[in-house]
Here is the input.
Amino acid sequence: MGEDKGLMALFGKPMIAYVLDKAKEISEDIIIVSDNDNYKKFGYKVVRDLYKGLGPLSGILSGLTKSDHAANLILSCDIPYIKSGLLNYLIEHSEGYDITVPVHKERIHPLIGVYHKSCIDTIEKNIKMGKLKITDIFDHFNVHFVETDQFEDIEFKNLNSKKDILPM
Here is the structure.
C-alpha cells in the first residue's frame, strides 16, 4: 500500500481502530505489535517485532512473548469488518487446542485466531529456519480448524490495496 496499513484512514478513522474496537469487546488487555510508535496513540501496549521484516509469523511470536495469558486472540490490522460474534465463537471453540483458526468458504484465515503461548518455541525455531508461512507451523500443533461459513464473508475481508479501501 505504500504506507502503514493499520493507520490508513477508512471512513474517517485508522483501519486498526475498527479491529481494536472489536477486540476490546473481548478484553482490555490488548497488545499491538508494530515498530511504528504512532500506534501508541491508541492507548495499548505496543511491542516491537522480535525479528524485523519477517512478516506476520514474527508478529505472532512477538505478541505471544509479551503476553501474560496462555490463550491469545490474534488479529491482523487489516480486517476492519470483523465482528465480536466471530471472535467469541473462535474463543468458545479453542479449549484444548494449541491454535484455533477459522475456515471460511474453504479458506483458512491464520491471522484471525487463538494461539497459545506454548507455541512460542516452535514458532521461533521455524522463523530461525526461514519457514515464515504461518500455515507451516500447523503441522507441529494441535490445530482446530473451525468451520465459519455461517458468518458474513465481509468479516474475513483483508484490505490489501488502496482500491480495497474505497467505499463499498
Q: What stands out?
A: Residues 57 and 134 are 6 Å apart (CA to CA). The helical segments are 15-23, 56-66, 84-92, 120-128, 162-165. Residues 56-66 form the longest helix (11 residues).
